[in-house]
TrEMBL record, chain A:
Residues 10-91, 139-223 form the Cysteine-rich domain. This is L-lactate dehydrogenase complex protein LldE. InterPro entries: Cys_rich_dom. Pfam families: CCG.
UniProtKB/TrEMBL annotation, chain B:
InterPro entries: FTHF_cligase-like_sf, LUD_dom, NagB/RpiA_transferase-like. This is L-lactate dehydrogenase complex protein LldG. The lineage of its organism: Bacteria, Pseudomonadati, Pseudomonadota, Alphaproteobacteria, Rhodospirillales. Residues 125-222 form the LUD domain.
TrEMBL record, chain C:
Pfam families: Fer4_8, LUD_dom, LutB_C. Gene3D superfamilies: Alpha-helical ferredoxin, NagB/RpiA/CoA transferase-like. Residues 304-335 form the 4Fe-4S ferredoxin-type domain. InterPro entries: 4Fe4S_Fe-S-bd, 4Fe4S_Fe_S_CS, FTHF_cligase-like_sf, Helical_ferredxn, LUD_dom, LutB/LldF, LutB_C, NagB/RpiA_transferase-like. It comes from the Bacteria. Keywords: 4Fe-4S, Electron transport, Iron, Iron-sulfur, Metal-binding, Repeat, Transport. The keyword 4Fe-4S applies. This is L-lactate dehydrogenase complex protein LldF.
Amino acid sequence: MAEKRPAPRVGLFVTCLVDLFRPTVGFAAVKLLEDAGCTVEVPSAQTCCGQPAFNSGDRKTAQELARNTIAAFEGFDYVVVPSGSCGGQIKKHYPELLAEDPAWAARAQHLSARTYELVSFLADVLGVTDTGARYDGTITYHDSCSGLRELGVKEQPRRLLASVEGLTLNELPGAEVCCGFGGTFCVKYPDVSNRMVEAKTADIKGTQADTLLAGDMGCLLNMAGKLKREGSAIRVRHVAEVLAGVTDTPPIGEKG
Amino acid sequence: MADTSSARAQILGGIRKALGSVEGSEDARKRLAVHPRNLVPARAQLQHADQVELFTRMATEVAATVERLPGLSDVPRAVAEYLAGLNLPAEIRVAPDADLDAIPWDQRPTLTVSKGRARDSDGASVTGAFAGVAETGSLMLLSGTERPTTLNFLPDTHIVVLKRSQVVGTMEDAWDRLRGLGVAGTMPRTVNFITGPSRTGDIEMRIELGAHGPRRLHILLVED
Amino acid sequence: MEPTTHAFPENARKALSDERLQKVLAIAPAGFVNRRKQAADRLPEFEALRDQGRDLKNHVLANLDTYLEAFESKVTEQGGHVHWCRTDQEARDAILGICRAANAKTVTKGKSMVSEEIGINDYLEANGLTPIETDLGEYIIQLRHEPPSHIIAPAFHLSKKDVEGTFRQAHTDLPPDRVLDDPKVLIAEARTVLRRKFQQADVGITGANLMIAETGSTVIVTNEGNGDLTQILPRVHVVIASIEKIVPTLEDAALVLRLLARSATGQEASAYTTFSTGPRRPGDLDGPEEFHVVLLDNGRSALLGTEFQEVLRCIRCGACMNHCPVYGAVGGHAYGWVYPGPIGSVIQPALLGVKEAGHLPNASTFCGRCEAVCPMRIPLPKMMRHWREKEFEEGLQPAAMRKGLGLWAWFARRPALYHAATRMAIRALGALGRGKGRFAALPLAQGWTKHRDMPAPEGKTFQQMWAEQKGKR
Ligand code: SF4
C-alpha cells in the first residue's frame, strides 16, 4: 500500500492580471489545488514576474523582479501559476536571465524546476483526472502561445475538460495561432493586433460554442474585449473557473 | 578582374578574431577528409528490390512517369510509343553517351534520332542517368563530354534511361558511388538531381507543370 | 532599394486596408503551413534532422574561416574565381566588373535573396546592362518594379488577374484578344518570352542555397529549372552567395536539403537540385566558360560571437514567415526591405541598423510559432528580444512606453506599496466599469479600446481578498 505522503506545499503565483482583473481565477486555482490535496499559500511579497520589462528589452528590471519572485517563493515544494505566459517567464526565462549571476543562477534553476502552469500541474504532476465540476454548455478552447510552446500545455486542459459533466468541446480551428495580444504589442501595433484578434473571433464564432476558454488572462481580456465589441454573446472564462466549478461570477467583460 | 585580397584578409581576419581562432581548425579539416554521414532516414534503407519499388512510387508521386523495360533493346519502341501516345513528333535529341550506344535506334526507322547538346528547337531528349535515388524518386545526372546538361532542361519532354542497378537508396549512397569513380575530389561541372518535371507555384500557389524546364519527365527503368 | 522599414506601422496600415492582399493572405500561408506539416509528419526523423541541422550549422560557424578557405581553394583548383566582398557596394562592383569583362549586355538571373540585398538589378541597369529575372515570381515583380513579398514566393501577394495585367502591359506583342485567365497560359507566355532572353544572355547570375567546402561546389534548389538555364546557357556563370551558406561536405548538403524543401514548400525534394563546380570542362558540349563566386559578408561576420550569431544558421526556407501571424496580417512589403517575416525582424536590424529597422523586432507577440517550425531551430523570438534590449540601451523606445513601464517596475520592486497602490487603482477602475462590465473607451488605453472593449476588473485585488479571507479561514 502506498504510504500517505504529506500534502505538497504549493505557492500560488497569482499573476498581475489575475490579481488585478480577475481574482476569481485565483480562487478557482486555490480550490483546484486544495481539492487535489495541496496546501496552498500566497506569498504577499510577490508582485510581477517581470515579463513586461523582459520583453521590452529592460533586462535589468527583469532581473530585479526575477530575484524578487525567487525570494518570495523559496521553500515551497511547488510554485503554480494560472498562466502559461508568466509560468513560462519563471520556468524558461529566469534561468537564462540570471545565468551569469553567481548568487542567483542556482536559485533561478531551482525555482524553475518547481514551477508549473496550473492545469499541467494538476494533470501531469498531481495526476488529477476528474475535477468533479459541472458546466452546461458548449465550449471552445484557445491554446495560449507561451503555455503551448514554452510549456507544452495542450492535452492537459482537454483531458480535464472532458471530465466536466455537461460540457461539450468544439475544437477551435487555428487554436494554436496567436490571438494578437502579445503584451505591449497590442497597444504598440493596435491595427495589426486587431487583424489578428478579428481572425480569432471569427474562428471562435464559427465553432458555434457558447463559451470560450483559455489559460491566460492576457489572451482572455483581448478576445473577450473583441467579442464584446462585436456584440457577441459568447461567454469568456479562464479554464480554471470551469474546472473548479467557480462560475457564479459574471464572465469576463460582462456585468454582474 | 579586381583584386579582392584585402577584403579577403579582412573578412577572414574578422572571423578569426570573433572565433578566437588563429590557424583554422583540425576538427574542420578532419570533417572534410572523412565526410561522415549524418542521420540518414530509414525510409530508403531497404533491399535493392524494395528500393526500386520506392523509387518508382516516389517518382510517380511527383508527376514523373515510369515504364519498366526488359532491356536496352526495348528503348526505341518504348520511346516511339510514348511520343506517339502524346501526339508528339517522333524526333529525339539523344545524349552522345557511350552508355546509350547499345540502344538499337535503327529498329525504329520512323524515329528521327540526332545526337548532341540540346537546341532550342528540340522537343524531346533522351539521356542516361548516373543514379536514381529511391528516397525521393530523384534522378541524378552528371555533366560530361558525352552528357550535355542542356538536354535535361531545354526540351519539353525529357526521357531518361535508368538502369535498375543504378537505383540507390539515398543521396548519400549516390555520393559514395560518385566518389567510387576514382575522380577523387573532382565533381563534374554539373550534378543535377531531378525530381519530377519542372513546376511552379508562383501564381496563386497553384502548382503547374512545365515552367522553364521539361513539362514531362519519363523514366525508362531498364533491367540489367 | 531604399528601405521603408522605419515606416512599418504605416506600411502595415496600408497592407491591412488592401483588400486584394488580405484575400491572398487569408488563404496562401495556410497552404504552406499544411504542406509543411504533411511533409514533416511523413518523415519520422524530421525532428532529429532539425537537431542535426542546428548542430551542423553551429559547427560551421565555429569553423567558418577554415571552411571558406577550403571552399575557395577548391573553386580555384577547378578553374573558378572567388571574389571576396565586404559590403554590398563591393559585391555590386565585382559583378559589374565581371559583366564588363565579358562585354555583357543581357544578364539573366535566378532567384537570389542576396542579389536583392545588394540591389544588383538597379545597379546593372544604371550601368547600361539589362538584368532579367527568370524565376516566374521574380520576373513578374521585376516587371511591376516591386520588391519580393516572400523569400520563396516573391509574387505571393498577387492574383492571376494582377499577373495578366502586368503581362499585357509589358509584353507589347501580345494580341489583345488572347485569353490569359488561366495560370497555365500565363506560365506558357512567360516561358516563351524568357526562352528568348535565356538565349540572348551573356552572363547568368544565380544565388546559392549552399556552398560546399569539400568540393568547391555551389548548390541551387529550384522547381522551375530557370536557375539551370541561367547557368548553362550564358558564357559566364556568376554565383552570389553570403558567407554563412557554406557547409563542409556533400553529406552535410544532403542533411540540409532534407530540411530545406520540406520546410519551404512541403516537398520531399524540389524538382531541381543542382551542384555546380567550376566552369565547363574541356570537351564539354555546354556549360559556362567562366565560373565566379561573389562571396558576400555585408555585416555577417560581425554577428559572430554576439548574441545574434545563431541567426547565421538560417537557410532561407521561409517557414517562419508562413507561420507568422504578423506576416499573415500584413504580408511581406510592410517589412519595408528584402527580408520579411520573423527572419527579417532579426536580420534587417543587423543589416540596416536598429534606427531604420527597430520596429520589426517589436512588432511581434513572441508567440513562438516561428521558432517551433524553423528547421535550424533558430530562437527567433529571443533574438528579437535582444534587439529590443539594444534599443532599450540606446534609449530608442517611445518615451511614454518607457515611462509607463518604469513606473510599473518601480512599484513592482516594492511589494507592500505595489499591493496598496493596485488595490486603490482597481477599486476605482472596478467602480467605473461595474455598470457594463467593460469599457468602450479608457484614457491611456486608446491603443486597446480603439478596436476592442476593455473588460472591467472585479473591483478588489486577489491579494486583498486573500488577506481578508485568511482572517476568516
Ligand atoms: S529563420 Fe528558420 S524558418 Fe525562417 S527562413 Fe531561416 S531557416 Fe527558415
